[in-house]
Amino acid sequence: MLLMSISGWWEALGSTEQIYWGIAIISSAIFCVQLILSFSGVDAELEADLDGGDGLGLISFRSLIAFSTFFGWGGVAALIEGFTPAKALMIAFLCGFIAMMALAYMLARLFKMQESGTVDVFSAISKEADVYLAIPKGRGGKGKIHVNVEDKLMEFDAVSDGSLINTGAKVRVTDVLNDNVMLVTAIN
Fold first, then answer.
1. How many CB atoms lie under 10 A from the CB of residue 186?
2. What is the Cα–Cα distance from 80 to 18, expressed in whole angstroms?
3. What are phi and psi of 26, to 5 degrees?
4. How far apart are alpha carbons 109 and 55 in whole angstroms?
5. Which residue blocks in 41-60 are alpha helix, DSSP H?
6. Which of 49, 82, 121, 140 is 20 to 30 A from 100 via CA?
């Protein structure tokens, strides 16, 4: 019975209305599947940016579905409000374009919030550090220091060209050597 009423409703629509309703329903279904996959963490493997991934992601599968969904519903709403098919088409494109731009903007903002987790060890140069394990004189061995690098307290191996530097002393990082070993000098 329900199927017959849906079929009757569909047949009563004009061809323009059928196009907008078809786009809206199909795009909304795909959008819902994307949303469910996003919440389950599966969508990361499915997303493919067609623009190479270096822009706002305007031409990604996700943004095309957003465009199609809002294009369809914008067209349906415009036709229901009595706009001509030409005006409905303009409204539909405007709705789709705004949705695509908004999604691209939000995704760009989200990606900027991501943190790679890598630290630029060269930003430790000229920073003050605490000696954790004594540093032998004249690069005769390695000690350890604690230094704040990019708002993270990190531990590094350290050497010194000067005399022995005892545990608890303050030092200044002067260079980064091979394998992230810090060259330090004692602070008097």
1. 16
2. 12
3. -65, -45
4. 12
5. 43-46
6. 82
Q: Any residues with CB less than 8 A from the CB of 157 and at least 6 apart, and which?
A: 142, 143, 144, 179, 180, 181, 182
Count of CB atoms situated within 10 Å of the CB of 48: 9
CA nearest neighbour of 13 among 68, 24, 93: 24
Question: Cβ–Cβ contacts within 10 Å for residue 156, how many?
Answer: 22
In contact, 159 and 183? CB cutoff 8 Å: yes
Torsion of CA 133, 139, 140, 145, to 10 degrees: 10
User: What does the pLDDT look like over 126-173, one tens digit per residue?
Assistant: 999 999 999 999 999 999 999 998 888 999 999 999 899 999 999 999
- How many CB atoms sit inside 10 A of residue 99's CB? 20
52, burial (CB in 10 Å: exposed 0-12, middle 13-18, buried 19+): exposed
Nearest by Cα to 21 from 94, 82, 76: 76
Taking Cα atoms as reference points, which of 68, 62, 84 lies closest to residue 24? 68
pTM: 0.55
Question: Looking at this protein, which amino acid is placed at residue 74?
Answer: G
